[in-house]
Each structure stands twice: as structure tokens, then as C-alpha cells.
Amino acid sequence: MSDGVVKGYVSRLVVSVPDGAERLTVRGAFTHDKPGKRTEVDVLWARSDPGLGGYVNESKDLPTLADNRWKAFQDDELGMGSLIAFIVVALIGAILTPVFALVPNAGDLQEVAWSAPFQTVRTAPTVLVFWGWSPLMLGNQPSLPQMLVAVGSFCLVLLGYVATSLRGFG
User: Fold this and answer.
1) CA distance between the termini of the chain
2) pLDDT surpasses 80 at 169
3) What pTM was estimated for this model as a whole?
4) What is the per-residue pLDDT across 57-109, written as a single tens digit (0 to 9) for each?
5) DSSP characters for 92-158?
6) How many CB atoms within 10 Å of residue 151?
7) Residue 160: which residues within 8 A CB-CB, separation 6 or more?
8) How far apart (Å, rounded) are the C-alpha atoms in residues 141 and 151?
9) Quick one: which of 82, 25, 77 has its CA closest to 55?
């Protein structure tokens, strides 16, 4: 419940599935509407071991979970997540392209290699990138900020390769 508005229900359900040998118990099932008798829900369950119970969560895409993959952007009515991600990635690219084109030479980098403030600043983006990629590495659904960090870091590396390649031609 948020601001007096019910966003969904978490409950224990007993469901029957087509071609299922028995009823499944689903603990912690999330539904947008209050569940009742004859309510139809999508359920993820193991046909080989129905005793494990099931999984119901109407805020997740169960076919994607069953296929052990993730979607880059969650489906929403207006596609705002995709638009925001595109704008953020475009801004990151527009800002960082000149930075990579003006990368200091090896001598300048050697001077700052043992600088404590430089290493601290360098560690922060490394931790941020790990945080952004960790759901993807663990097979979980990333949040929108994590998706933006993952896509942004990928674009950063790609732009770095492109910029250093172009610099080599000049």
C-alpha cells in the first residue's frame, strides 16, 4: 500500500494447473487484484516435482524467468524506461567521447598510477559497474538504475575502443 492506494496483494494460494497431477501451494504470491476462487493466474512450477510448489508474481514476466533470460527494458504502457535509458546512454556517450579522444599519454598515466586520490576515484566507478552488472551475472532481473549502469558501462568501453582506434589513425 502506498499513499492509501493498494498496489497489489501478497497471499498464500492453492492453485490447480492444466495437466497437473495435483494442486500446488504458492507462498508469497503477488497479484494486482485480490485473489479469490476461480481467479486465473500465471504460475511457474516444476512439472517433475510439483511438491516444490509454484511461483506467482504478476509484476514479473514469468516466460522470461522460465527461459532463464532477462529483458533489457521492462514493458510499461508508455515505454518511459526505454526512453530514459536511451537519453542517459546518449548523454553518457556525448560527454565521454571527447574525454576518450583526449586520453593522456603513457607518461602522464604513470605519474598518477600511484596517487591515492586517483586510485580512490578510479575504484568508485569500478564498484558502480560491478553493482550494475551483478544481477546479469547472477541471472536476476536488474532494476532500472542497474540496467542504465550496465548499458552505460558497455557503451563507455565501446566508445573507448572507437576513440583510441581513431586516435591511432591521426
Assistant:
1) 59
2) no
3) 0.42
4) 888 777 777 776 656 555 555 567 767 777 887 888 777 777 666 766 777 76
5) HHHHHHHHHHT---HHHHHHHTT-HHHHHHHHHHHHHHHHHHHHHHHTPPPPHHHHHHHHHHHHHHH
6) 19
7) 100
8) 14
9) 25
